[in-house]
């Protein structure tokens, strides 16, 4: 008995060693958001299907992650095998050959099922360079009770004029209820994400076909003046410091009548554990001005594989699993349909179970309303709805965002902010060689 | 009369000192309190102080999601290793500068300190490339080296200041008694400079423990210390303040406790030689 037991133990130890020796470890860099964290908790399914692959996670705050992965991919540091990257990075990195093409994904992965708007943003010269994990647009979230009390009814596709009218009617500053909450914090992914998308609906654009900045246009003046007017009269105090989280806190504590921001916020504001207004929230498309473009953005967090990784096959296996239909079904079975990563696959929105989620339809319509290839009323030389997919944009976008945030704080006039934005953008574009 | 003025002054000074102390400690206290709140209570307006539903849920979530012990061990090894390596280099350097000064010693000291004035991001890419080529990315030894180099000027300066306070005659007497250079440093100088060395060690450990630029940029999964552990709980899209606070509390607790217990040595060392 003793000998048998020892032999068994020895065999187990040998098997464990052999498994460890043959398993491949990949390092995945990712952001700290609910969907990504949920995936880390569901890895048992991946290990069961692929016992030869181990996954190490590096979870970072969005801006830190962006800097870390950019530095690593540009220097070929080789620290990560899979990177979570946004729709801003994919076209730039794909064009430079920094990412492994995902054209050879198997038929059962069903690439054609990916929402066309999202897939378009991840494709360069016909090659897919990243697989979308979750996608988002922006939309209007509003308090149904306050809207009703104001005697108004939110249309599914409101105009900016209606938003202004509703903001005025819902504002009750004595009771700390503000008609509208919008991003004011400076940054290319903060206030400029909102303002660039809003500008698109006003017929404004960042650059003309010769890459000349357009902040001296009437359309930009109208955009900024209306934004400042809304926020000054009906927005919360100190709005120039408000980003997504600050506005989320205001909305959840009942202090905002309307909030125009990422569709992902819908699951937070309707969660009764965190939100005091969970059962009083309605959704509508981002507003327009009747010019054919709405003021909503398009963003996706995607999984890309850096060129030169030593574990390309294992990395591809992981990307395929994490962005597959099966993974969606796995999340639904463990955590419910409301927690499935949204905004990537057509089949998800055709699923009758998912259609029961209150914000599902509006999220899909918002995503479909955005077109990163043709984001503006007039033709432009760039791709991207709330950003311009050129490497210089991060710096320029943040500098312009600082000007507009200063205008919201009352430190400069709208006119001066636009003049400064035009000047600094011209200077940077000249330095980068886009204009002479 | 004089006695009453003195008492009044003492009272004012005490109140003032407590006010400053509380102001400095307040963010830490608030972080600790928030770590015991629910996410909804963490964003409550007006803020709730103590009257909330206390929960350990955030700690449980953090513990379940992250490998705290691995990050903790990395922090211990990186801060301990860089302090030890720093001392091995700095003690002889400070001895030479304090007891055998050359014409340019002061200039050398100033030059060493000037390296602290360079913004770290200015040398990020060269160091990253060097680490990549030497295979030091995401290794503890790589971080021990880089943190040693970063904190070395401070260690040398502190030790130099303490050594200068020690009368040279004592070392001369040791030499006359036949002590070698090695035993002079180990058996005579070091015991006399213990308070100063202790505070240097403590300060260096604290600096290395809290260093977040290099530890975030040069690590990925294997060598990431507690700074990376905290960074993984920060999110611009989602209110996870309570979980972030729990992660922060877990990260600062060891160094806070160490500082608490060693505050006497720390203060004694930092004020060493200040009063003649």
What would you say this structure looks like, in words?
Chain B: This is Sorbitol ABC transporter membrane protein /mannitol ABC transporter membrane protein. Chain B: Pfam families: BPD_transp_1 (PF00528). Chain B: The chain crosses the membrane at residues 12-33, 76-96, 108-129, 141-163, 184-209, 240-261. Chain A folds into two domains: 2-136 and 298-355, D-Maltodextrin-Binding Protein, domain 2 (3-Layer(aba) Sandwich), CATH 3.40.190; 138-296 and 379-431, Periplasmic binding protein-like II (D-Maltodextrin-Binding Protein, domain 2). Chain A has helices at 2-22, 34-41, 43-49, 62-75, 89-95, 116-121, 144-149, 160-170, 191-201, 218-234, 244-252, 265-269, 312-322, 325-335, 346-350, 352-355, 360-368, 393-408, 414-431; strands at residues 24-31, 53-60, 82-86, 123-124, 127-128, 131-143, 178-181, 256-262, 281-285, 298-304. In chain A, the strands form two sheets. In chain A, strands 1, 2, 3, 6, 7, 8, 9 and 10 form an eight-stranded mixed beta sheet that branches. In chain A, strands 4-5 form a two-stranded antiparallel ribbon. The longest helix of chain A is centred in the N-terminal third of the chain and has 21 residues, at 2-22. By secondary structure, chain A is of the alpha/beta class. In chain A, helix 18 (393-408) runs antiparallel to helix 19. Chain B has 276 residues and is mainly alpha-helical. Chain B has a domain at 66-232: MetI-like (MetI-like fold). Chain B has 14 helices and no strands. In chain B, helix 4 (68-99) runs parallel beside helix 7 (140-165), helix 4 (68-99) crosses helix 10 (194-210) and helix 10 (194-210) packs across helix 14. The longest helix of chain B has 34 residues, at 2-35. The two termini of chain B are 30 Å apart. Classes of the chains: A alpha/beta (436), B mainly alpha (276). Chains A and B meet through strand 1, helix 2, strand 2, helix 4 and helix 11 of A and helix 6 of B.
């Amino acid at each position: 008995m003793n000998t048998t037991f020892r032999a068994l133990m020895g065999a187990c130890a040998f098997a464990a060693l052999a498994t460890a020796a043959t398993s491949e470890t990949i390092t995945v860099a990712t952001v700290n958001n609910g969907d990504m964290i949920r995936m880390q908790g569901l890895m048992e399914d991946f290990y069961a299907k692929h016992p030869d692959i181990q996954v190490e996670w590096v979870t970072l705050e969005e801006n830190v992650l962006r800097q870390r992965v950019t530095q690593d991919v540009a220097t070929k540091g080789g620290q990560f095998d899979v990177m979570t990257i946004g729709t801003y990075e994919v076209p730039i990195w794909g064009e430079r050959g920094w990412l492994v093409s995902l054209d050879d994904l198997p038929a059962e992965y069903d690439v054609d099922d990916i929402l066309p708007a999202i897939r378009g943003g991840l494709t360069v010269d016909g090659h897919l360079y990243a697989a979308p994990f979750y996608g988002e647009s922006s939309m209007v979230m509003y308090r149904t009770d306050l809207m009703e009390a104001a005697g108004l009814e939110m249309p599914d596709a409101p105009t900016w004029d209606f938003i202004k009218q509703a903001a005025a009617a819902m504002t009750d500053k004595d009771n700390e209820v503000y008609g509208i909450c919008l991003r004011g914090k400076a940054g290319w992914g903060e206030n400029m994400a909102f303002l660039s998308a809003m500008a698109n609906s006003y017929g404004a654009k960042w650059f003309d076909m010769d890459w000349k900045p357009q902040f001296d246009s009437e359309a930009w003046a109208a955009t900024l003046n209306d934004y400042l007017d809304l926020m000054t009269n009906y927005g919360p105090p100190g709005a120039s410091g408000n980003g997504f989280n600050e506005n989320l806190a205001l909305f959840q504590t009942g202090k905002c009548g309307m909030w125009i921001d990422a569709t992902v916020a819908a699951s937070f504001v309707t969660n009764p554990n965190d939100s005091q207004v969970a059962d009083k929230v309605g959704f509508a498309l981002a507003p327009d001005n009747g010019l054919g473009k709405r003021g909503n953005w398009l963003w996706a967090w995607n999984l890309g594989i850096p060129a030169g990784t030593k574990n390309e096959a294992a990395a591809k296996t992981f990307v395929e699993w994490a962005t597959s239909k099966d993974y969606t079904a796995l999340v639904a079975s463990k955590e419910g349909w409301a927690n499935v990563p949204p905004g990537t696959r057509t089949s998800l929105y055709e699923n009758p179970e998912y259609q029961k989620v209150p914000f599902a339809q509006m999220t899909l319509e918002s995503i479909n309303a955005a077109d990163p290839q043709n984001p503006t009323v007039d033709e432009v030389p760039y791709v991207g709805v709330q950003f311009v997919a050129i490497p210089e944009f991060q710096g320029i976008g943040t500098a312009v965002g600082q000007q507009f945030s200063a205008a919201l704080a009352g430190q400069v006039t709208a006119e001066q902010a636009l003049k400064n934005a035009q000047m600094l953008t011209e200077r940077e574009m000249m330095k980068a060689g886009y204009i002479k | 009369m004089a006695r009453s003025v003195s008492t009044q002054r003492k009272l004012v000074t005490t109140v003032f000192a407590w006010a400053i102390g509380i102001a400095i400690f307040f963010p830490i206290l608030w972080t600790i309190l928030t770590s015991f709140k629910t996410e909804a209570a963490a964003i409550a307006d007006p803020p709730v102080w103590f009257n909330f539903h206390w929960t350990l849920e955030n700690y449980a979530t953090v513990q379940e999601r992250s490998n705290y012990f691995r990050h903790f061990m990395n922090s211990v090894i990186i801060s301990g290793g860089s302090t030890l390596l720093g001392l091995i280099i700095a003690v002889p350097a400070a001895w030479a500068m304090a007891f055998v000064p050359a014409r340019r010693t002061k200039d050398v000291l100033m030059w060493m300190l000037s390296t602290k004035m360079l913004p770290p991001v200015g040398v990020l890419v060269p160091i990253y490339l060097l680490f990549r080529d030497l295979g030091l990315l995401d290794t503890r030894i790589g971080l021990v080296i880089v943190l040693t180099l970063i904190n070395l000027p401070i260690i040398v300066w502190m030790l130099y200041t303490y050594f200068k306070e020690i009368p040279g005659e004592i070392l001369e007497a040791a030499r006359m008694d036949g002590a070698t250079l090695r035993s002079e440093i180990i058996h005579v100088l070091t015991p006399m400079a213990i308070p100063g060395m202790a505070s240097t060690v403590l300060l260096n450990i604290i600096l290395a423990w809290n260093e977040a630029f290099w530890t975030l940029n040069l690590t990925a999964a294997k060598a990431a210390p507690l700074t990376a552990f905290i960074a993984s709980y920060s999110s611009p899209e989602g209110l996870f303040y309570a979980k972030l606070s729990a992660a922060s509390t877990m990260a600062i607790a060891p160094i806070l406790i160490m500082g608490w217990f060693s505050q006497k040595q720390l203060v004694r060392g930092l004020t060493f030689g200040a009063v003649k």
